[in-house]
Design goal:
The chain has 179 residues and is α+β, with helices and mostly antiparallel strands. Helix content is 32%, strand content 15%. The protein is elongated, with a radius of gyration of 23 Å.
């Protein structure tokens, strides 16, 4: 389905006219203090009927007025923004820097037949098939690993329940004092 048709359907589902959207976009632009958020009727018609791709600010306006997730609109235009983190890892940068966290997380869908829930292991050694979990679950530290707490491992049962999946920072090897 064409992105413009998705936009039209979202607008019509809410019972909004072009003029309603334009009026709302003026209010949003005034609130944000930038005229870039304004969606004129002619531009809205171009987006819906002529395959015009919205600018970043117009996309924001559409998402806000139509009560849509902007990531969904990105997908309509074949711009998989949720893959940006993963695609970025393909390109090396000459200098060390912080990187944006992923918007989705790989999660185990099928465990290796040798998986023994009584043993504590690194998750990467136990999973046969991976899937995706939407939402940011990390704070952007790429050096972390995921682990599985074995069903029989009760060493930290008062804090971590057996059978839990945990995020492991291998650089931390001492318990920090404090509250």
């Amino acid at each position: 389905m064409q992105p413009g048709l998705h936009l039209r359907q979202a607008r019509e589902k809410l019972g909004l006219t072009y003029r309603d959207v334009e009026r709302a976009s003026f209010e949003l632009a005034a609130r944000r203090g930038r005229p870039d958020f304004i969606l004129h009727i002619s531009r809205l018609a171009d987006l819906e009927n002529h395959g015009v791709v919205p600018s970043l600010h117009k996309l924001y306006t559409l998402a806000a007025i139509y009560h849509l997730n902007p990531l969904e609109i990105f997908r309509w235009y074949n711009a998989p923004i949720e893959e940006c983190f993963h695609d970025g890892t393909l390109f090396e940068a000459p200098r060390t820097h912080m990187m944006a966290p992923p918007t989705s997380l790989r999660v185990p869908m099928k465990f290796d037949p040798s998986f023994d829930p009584r043993r504590t292991e690194l998750l990467s050694r136990l999973v046969e098939k991976w899937g995706r979990f939407e939402g940011v679950l990390t704070d952007g530290h790429c050096h972390q690993l995921y682990g599985y707490i074995g069903i029989s491992d009760r060493r930290m049962a008062h804090i971590l329940r057996p059978g839990s999946i945990v995020l492991v920072d291998p650089s931390k090897n001492k318990i920090e004092e404090g509250d």
